[in-house]
Amino acid sequence: MAKTTLHTLLEMKQTGEKFTCLTSYDATQAHMVSSQGTDIILVGDSLGMVVQGRDSTVPVTMDDMVYHTRCVARGNTDAMIMADIPFMACATIEQTYTNATALMQAGAEVIKLEGGRWLCDTVKGLSERGVPTCLHLGLTPQSVSMLGGYKVQGRDEESANRMIEDAIMLANAGANIILLECVPTPLAREITRAVSVPVIGIGAGPDTDGQVLVVYDMLGMTHGRKPRFVKDFMAEAGTPAEAVAQFVADVKSGAFPAPEHGFSK
């Protein structure tokens, strides 16, 4: 398998081939995920919840993110590594430059930021300095207190239009990837068509260019209530590696996500 790059993702968007993304937090996970054909590994601040057992991603620190990114980089084969800048670690442009440097030097190839148009200047500055970015819109877990919980975003016309505008503005500022979480399928489809950069979805329907899941969720290891957008790929697999391979195959074929994994409005 050839190494996944930003150019790879752009070609896939243009040809209509779906790409895949799974989280990983250590070398063993990274090797399993990447060796089964996953295109992108996300070292997500979701580790705060699934690894550290916290109630949200807010307590995750830059030291946590750098440590786990280093671990993932050691186990990765051909996937592109994307890493989160955690809560309030991109409050200023200068702070973001420092933290992006730390993640890139730890092995990340793309930096993921949560937020809308207010990040345009930051994205432009990072792009000018050779740092690729993914911008996370919709349900942004770092802002869950402001959002009033883990709720679908963009259901009314005003917020939907604002999200479309944010995506376009961020792409124009130099964002390389847009990630949409928990947005209605029609809105995700519109945003995917409106921007020239690849769009990854989670709980955003089948029309985005790629799909991402938390690896523990797709292996059936979720504690408590399972999110609607999750499918347990271990249910019909013999090993975790087989489950990852099935996830990749189902995204590529369009079998996942099915209608029951998304939100119509």
TrEMBL record:
GO biological process: methylation; pantothenate biosynthetic process
Binding residues annotated for Mg(2+), in chain numbering: 45, 84, 114
MF terms in GO: 3-methyl-2-oxobutanoate hydroxymethyltransferase activity; magnesium ion binding; methyltransferase activity
InterPro entries xrefs: Pantoate_hydroxy_MeTrfase, Pyrv/PenolPyrv_kinase-like_dom, Pyrv_kinase-like_dom_sf
Catalyzed chemical reaction(s): (6R)-5,10-methylene-5,6,7,8-tetrahydrofolate + 3-methyl-2-oxobutanoate + H2O = 2-dehydropantoate + (6S)-5,6,7,8-tetrahydrofolate
UniProt keyword annotations, A-Z: Cytoplasm, Magnesium, Metal-binding, Methyltransferase, Pantothenate biosynthesis, Transferase
EC number: 2.1.2.11
GO CC annotation, single: cytoplasm
Keyword flag Cytoplasm: yes
Domain of life of the organism encoding this protein: Bacteria
UniProt-listed NCBIfam families: panB (TIGR00222), PRK00311.1 (NF001452)
Protein name: 3-methyl-2-oxobutanoate hydroxymethyltransferase
Naturally occurring in which organism (per UniProt): Parendozoicomonas haliclonae
Gene name of the record: panB
